[in-house]
Amino acid sequence: MLDEPIWIVTREDILDETDDGAKSWGKDLVDKALTLKLQPVDPEKLKQEWNRTMKFVGQLIQQAEQQAGDEFEMQLDEVTLAVEINGRGQVNLLGACSGEANGKGAITLKFKRNVTK
């Protein structure tokens, strides 16, 4: 097993106050780059989180496949997911229109049905 941590790049959201006290979202790229930092994550914790998430995703895919066949006489051929690993080692699924995904990086997983000849 790995003794060294896995390093995750995270970004702190720092908001400036404007003259009238309202939050300013107009940070330029240089300011955002200055807020990047490395977070150490325990490889075992990351592995456990990953396995838990993939097990759940597998259950969702099986259920979707069964419903598609039973209700629509269709076969699920491909699933694409966006997954984020945060600075605490948590593995999260990102929604397509999630405001939480704004400004975050994600791992895109594409599952395609294995076609046997």
Radius of gyration: 19 Å
Report the β-strand fraction as a percent range.
25-35%
The separation of the N and C termini measures 38 Å
Helix content: 25-40%
Catalogue the unreliable spans: 98-103
What assembly state would you assign to the polypeptide chains in this entry?
single chain
User: How many discrete domains?
Assistant: 1
Tally of separate helices: 2
Largest sheet: 3 strands, antiparallel
Shape label: elongated
Structural class: alpha+beta
**Order of secondary-structure elements:** EEEHEHEEE
Adjacency order of strands in the biggest sheet: 6-5-7
3D structure, described in words:
With 117 residues, the protein is of the alpha+beta class. The protein has one domain (6-112). It is built from 2 helices and 7 strands; from the N terminus they run βββαβαβββ. The protein has helices at residues 29-34, 43-72; strands spanning 6-11, 16-17, 23-24, 36-41, 78-85, 91-94, 107-112. A hairpin with a 5-residue loop joins strand 2 (16-17) and strand 3. The chain is elongated.
How do the helices and strands line up, and which of them pair or pack?
Blueprint: E1 6-11, E2 16-17, E3 23-24, H1 29-34, E4 36-41, H2 43-72, E5 78-85, E6 91-94, E7 107-112
Antiparallel strand pairs: 1-4, 2-3, 5-6, 5-7
Characteristics:
117 residues; three-stranded antiparallel beta sheet
Provide a quick synopsis of the model:
It is built from 2 helices and 7 strands. It is of the alpha+beta class and 117 residues long.
